[in-house]
Amino acid sequence: MKKGFERSIIITEGREKKRSSLPENQGGNKMKKEYNIATKSGTSILTVLGIVFVVLKLIGVISWSWLIVCLPFIIEIGLVILVLLICVIALGIAYIITKN
Q1: Which of 3, 27, 28, 54, by CA, is between 20 and 30 Å from 84?
Q2: Which pTM was predicted?
Q3: Average pLDDT, stretch 68-91?
């Protein structure tokens, strides 16, 4: 590795920070601030239920229609659309109130 261009990664409390090391004659160690946006992801009960229904349908344990098997996924998509619609309506109301 070339001297003065090494890069190290420090892991602190589950977050990753990058630090560039420069030779002493080029200003010493300078640290860049980088912000990580923590996202929380998980599997909902509806998703697990939908996957279970699909597996049971594919192995022949249940003989339901595909509409009923996919209903948990449809409900989940509907809930996301409903939340987005509520947010758009709230933003519209806020815009109308602040405009006047």
Answers
A1: 54
A2: 0.55
A3: 96
